[in-house]
Amino acid sequence: MNATLKVGLVGWGAIGRVVGTALVEHRIPGAELACVVDNRPLGEAAPAPQVSFDEALERCELIVEAAGQGVVREWGERVLTSGTDLLIASTGALTDEELSKRLLAAGPGRVYFTGGAVGGLDLLQAVRSLGPLDEVRLTTTKLPGTLEQPWMDEELLSRLRTATGPVEVMSGTARDVPVKFPKSTNVAASVALAVGDLDAVRVQVVADPGAHHTRHVVEASGAHGSYRFEVAHLPDPGNPATSQVVPYAVLRSLAALAGRTGQIL
């Protein structure tokens, strides 16, 4: 690998713009933005050459996915089999167990995940070594408008649009929920990846017109201890379905992969 990690960025949206700008401004020592992939012509908005996915694989040592679950499904395996590493922001794609197995088995490229908008995943991964957790619950609360989906019926949409307080939108497992909310529940998949079991994580999605912050509460317990993590983030002004912190979680992961010393992994 070269001294400078050549990074290809897929997606020039709320996450991609922050990540790409930081790379261009050399705020991640040891990493540089080599190219951008996006399905829209970006013109001068792109601070690096806009290329096809295939060309990005030739130019880069690491692809950063910042464009949604569909990119992971369509291109994930191909990135890894080309020998290029892949950093995934849209972890919700991994609720497809067959896709997850294929990605984890593919190579020689390596696949990485970023924690995104939730913390404590490293501790949950460590706890797994002590034995299974008896209960894992995630409650995600967001503004109603960010949770509206094409599959919703008029009754549910009306409840969301007229809500004056918290409304439960869906409850299920980390296998079920991210599929229904592909832009809003990557956290559920991230918790499941940490725990190692999609069906063990119970997820509740709540719409609240007073939710000026996006809130995630993770509660887990087992014979060896109990754990609770709560985070409240400002939504990204350009894309309220994601939290402002997410691109900075991607940058932190990038810094670790580029070899920055002195940070907690």
TrEMBL record:
<keyword id="KW-0560">Oxidoreductase</keyword>
<feature type="binding site">
    <location>
        <position position="117"/>
    </location>
    <ligand>
        <name>NAD(+)</name>
    </ligand>
</feature>
<keyword id="KW-0662">Pyridine nucleotide biosynthesis</keyword>
<dbReference type="InterPro" id="IPR036291">
    <property type="entry name" value="NAD(P)-bd_dom_sf"/>
</dbReference>
<protein>
    <recommendedName>
        <fullName>L-aspartate dehydrogenase</fullName>
        <ecNumber>1.4.1.21</ecNumber>
    </recommendedName>
</protein>
<comment type="similarity">
    <text>Belongs to the L-aspartate dehydrogenase family.</text>
</comment>
<dbReference type="InterPro" id="IPR005106">
    <property type="entry name" value="Asp/hSer_DH_NAD-bd"/>
</dbReference>
<dbReference type="Pfam" id="PF03447">
    <property type="entry name" value="NAD_binding_3"/>
</dbReference>
<keyword id="KW-0520">NAD</keyword>
<feature type="active site">
    <location>
        <position position="216"/>
    </location>
</feature>
<keyword id="KW-0521">NADP</keyword>
<feature type="domain" description="Aspartate dehydrogenase">
    <location>
        <begin position="164"/>
        <end position="250"/>
    </location>
</feature>
<feature type="binding site">
    <location>
        <position position="186"/>
    </location>
    <ligand>
        <name>NAD(+)</name>
    </ligand>
</feature>
<dbReference type="InterPro" id="IPR002811">
    <property type="entry name" value="Asp_DH"/>
</dbReference>
<feature type="domain" description="Aspartate/homoserine dehydrogenase NAD-binding">
    <location>
        <begin position="11"/>
        <end position="106"/>
    </location>
</feature>
<dbReference type="Pfam" id="PF01958">
    <property type="entry name" value="Asp_DH_C"/>
</dbReference>
<dbReference type="InterPro" id="IPR011182">
    <property type="entry name" value="L-Asp_DH"/>
</dbReference>
<comment type="pathway">
    <text>Cofactor biosynthesis; NAD(+) biosynthesis; iminoaspartate from L-aspartate (dehydrogenase route): step 1/1.</text>
</comment>
<dbReference type="InterPro" id="IPR020626">
    <property type="entry name" value="Asp_DH_prok"/>
</dbReference>
<comment type="function">
    <text>Specifically catalyzes the NAD or NADP-dependent dehydrogenation of L-aspartate to iminoaspartate.</text>
</comment>
